[in-house]
Write a structure and sequence with these properties.
The protein is an alpha/beta fold. Helices cover 32% and strands 21% of the residues. The structure holds S-adenosyl-L-homocysteine.
Length: 491
């Protein structure tokens, strides 16, 4: 029985440590705060007990003594307890106090550091907290208390004289008093200052000014918590280093409608381009169990999706077989990602159409002598290749390896999708399923992976803003999205 005091990082889910994700996935109980990354708990076990102990709305924080009791109680009864906090648990997170309580109660615990906001928020704003030329030290402080009160725990005069960057947590409310005290203490009022709100979250905002101006700027721009205030020459480096805002999809929100297992890849690519990604996993694939087909019997096996590849290999593997089952048969694929999935299994596809469409594969096979073909893929999949081959007298067996099942969207997700700038459709079924989940196609601009998907989008009564032209895969989809973002538009 162990309690893990875990840092969840500053907000960007990609900045969660591997250790934190592993522990969340195995925890019996997760006791968490409000400021944790979006989706941080999505990897938790279905039967895990999730206990929220943060501030509800503008309400009161649960008293620390109650949280301590919860930790001890769960720590004594559950195998794995995760106490999940924003940023790092030992940086203004009361992790130290909780560790003391656990130690006192004789409960085993472990501390899992996280990326702290005081470093990460400036980093995302293009501000290094130290710099060889302008800051050889950095001090982290809490701006929680009113600095003008005599009982303030911080020595503001000493801090004003501190020869390095001052990084202030929880300081927005007291910003006026803090800057005043620092200037009174002798810190130059024209020293660069920065305020970063919701650093690493979608909608991160940064304000740069001086010690003398930052408070009034913050009021004018309505900056609020959570924010990091930074005082020191490094704040001026943002002008040269800001990298986030220069990305092609910065400020653009994109809803991704792939199945959960695949959404991560497209989401990751879009995030890397600066987009805010809303995952709307409306479909999920389920493998259909069954015996592995005898591939020896066929001249050609056609696979049209990575799921099909996975399904076929799962069946082979269940029978103790492997890629050698393909030894005497040729393979045709539809789609670059299918080709890649197959290559991953050590098999190079023989027939790969340039465009992602069954029609193209059928055309490619026109002059290939074939007697018997296996088309393996989705239950109720498109039958383009099957029909074309049968039309010329080829014997075709169709094998359903998996089916897609609809996964309903909750109202919060749906609202987020409706508010997005873009929705991407990587398949016709994802469009149909998003419609079934209540999306009405109004608001976001819609981007499709190819003609077949676009057709369905239009059947639903929606407009396709952009369609992948060259490649009907993730690259093509992203290119189509970028094209549309760049396209001049009347507003
Ligand atoms: N343990 C956390 C800090 C908790 S105190 C950590 O290591 O990051 C809460 C304060 O952290 C907020 O008031 C704010 O000053 C800062 N903070 C947390 N997340 C932030 C974010 N994403 N952007 C800016 N400041 C953040």
């Amino acid at each position: 029985m162990t309690v893990y005091l875990v840092g969840a990082g500053p907000g960007d889910p990609e900045l969660m440590t591997k250790r934190s994700l592993d522990l969340i996935a195995s925890a019996d109980v997760i006791i968490h705060d409000r400021l944790i990354p979006d989706g941080a708990l999505s990897g938790a076990r279905g039967d895990a007990e999730l206990v929220f102990v943060g501030k509800q709305g503008g309400g009161e924080q649960i008293p620390q003594s109650e949280i301590d009791q919860l930790l001890v109680r769960h720590g004594q009864s559950a195998e794995t307890v995760v106490r999940l906090k924003g940023g790092d648990p030992f940086v203004f997170g009361r992790g130290g106090e909780e560790a003391e309580v656990l130690a006192g109660a004789g409960i085993a615990f472990e501390v899992v550091p996280g990326v702290t906001a005081g470093i990460a928020a400036p980093a995302y704003a293009g501000i290094p907290v130290t710099h060889r030329d302008s800051a050889s030290s950095v001090a982290f402080l809490t701006g929680h208390e009113d600095p003008t009160k005599p009982e303030s725990a911080l020595d503001w005069e000493a801090l004003a004289a501190f020869p390095g960057t001052l990084c202030v947590y929880m300081g927005v409310r007291q910003l006026e008093g803090i800057t005043q005290r620092l200037i009174e203490g002798g810190r130059p009022s024209d020293q660069p200052a920065a305020l970063i709100q919701r650093g690493t979250w979608p909608g991160q905002r940064t304000l740069v000014g001086t010690l003398g101006t930052i408070h009034s700027l913050a009021v004018a721009e309505r900056f609020g918590a959570p924010a990091i205030a930074l005082f020191g020459p490094v704040a001026a480096l943002r002008e040269r280093i800001a990298w986030l805002e220069s990305r092609p999809l910065y400020g653009v929100s994109v809803a991704v409608t792939r199945a959960r297992a695949q959404a991560g890849k497209l989401g990751g690519r879009l995030r890397a381009l600066g987009a805010t990604v809303i995952e709307a996993p409306v479909i999920r694939t389920e493998q259909i169990p069954g015996p592995a087909p005898d591939l020896e019997r066929y001249d050609l096996v056609v696979l049209s999706s990575p799921n099909g590849v996975a399904g076929l290999f799962a069946r082979l593997s269940a029978e103790g077989r492997d890629a050698r089952a393909f030894a005497n048969t040729k393979v045709g694929v539809v789609g670059g990602i299918t080709e890649q999935a197959l290559a991953h299994q050590g098999i190079r596809a023989d027939y790969v159409p340039r465009r992602w469409a069954g029609e193209e594969l059928a055309t490619l096979l026109v002059d290939v002598p074939l007697e018997r073909v296996l088309v393996a893929g989705a239950k109720h999949g498109r039958e383009t290749v099957t029909d074309a081959l049968r039309a010329r007298g080829v014997e075709v067996d169709v094998l359903a390896l998996y089916e897609t099942v609809v996964e309903p969207l909750d109202s919060e997700r749906l609202a987020a999708v409706n508010a997005a700038d873009y929705v991407t459709f990587a398949s016709a079924s994802s469009a149909r399923n998003l419609a079934a989940a209540g999306f009405e196609g109004v608001g976001p601009r819609l981007v499709s992976i190819g003609p077949a998907t676009s057709e369905v989008v239009r059947e639903l009564g929606w407009d396709v803003a952009s369609e992948a032209t060259e490649q009907h895969d993730l690259d093509g989809l992203i290119a189509a999205l970028l094209d549309d973002v760049k396209r001049p538009r009347q507003s």
